[in-house]
Amino acid sequence: MTAVDAAVQARLLGAETVTIAYRRARDHMAASRYEQDLAAASGVRILTEATPAAMEDGEVAFVHPTNAERIVVPADQVMLAIGQKLSGPLDGIALDGGKIAVDAAGRASVPGVWAGGDCASGGDDLTVTAVAEGRDAAEDIHQSLMG
Q1: What 3-state class would DSSP assign to 18?
Q2: Domain that holds residue 52
Q3: What is the dihedral angle through the alpha carbons of 118, 122, 126, 128, rounded to the nearest 10 degrees?
Q4: Would 138 be classed as within a structural domain?
Q5: Which residue among 12, 29, 32, 135 has its CA within the 20 to 30 Å range from the CA of 38?
């Protein structure tokens, strides 16, 4: 989702051409289909099954993982969005699918710990979701401190 957000913003800020290069098939992208379609509608090219091979002299070369076809993309700037997952243990904090397990209020398994956004389990990995989860956690933290 970070790659899609950055690509769409680059187009909105005036970049003439923007390409997202993804090393697997499109149906394996972590970005939702909605986000992928938004990127395409914004003029972002999505290049799939493209393994990075070289970057030099204003170009990035990719190689198809099965047929070794080489694709070269001109590039003034390159941004990396590599994804990440937590691997335990985290001082007793329970994980769920590489993310911090939380309840509806964002509470983790350790008292006094809340999480939200893309490090927390459940929900979508969208900025608006992370903001809402942060708000919910802040309200719950306030309640726990006040009473």
Answers
A1: strand
A2: 2-74
A3: -110
A4: yes
A5: 135
- Structure tokens of 63? 């190689």
Q: What's the pLDDT tens digit per position in 54-109? A: 988 889 999 998 898 999 999 988 887 766 667 666 778 888 888 888 998 889 99
Residue 69 CA to residue 83 CA, distance in Å, equals 25
- The structure's pTM equals 0.60
Separation of alpha carbons 144 and 107, rounded Å: 11
Query: Looking at the domain assignment, is residue 120 inside a domain?
Result: yes
Residues 41 and 101 in one domain: no
For residue 114, what is the DSSP state? B
The answer to the question of residue 90 being in a domain is: no
Model confidence pLDDT, tens digit, residues 25-47: 988 888 888 989 999 999 999 99
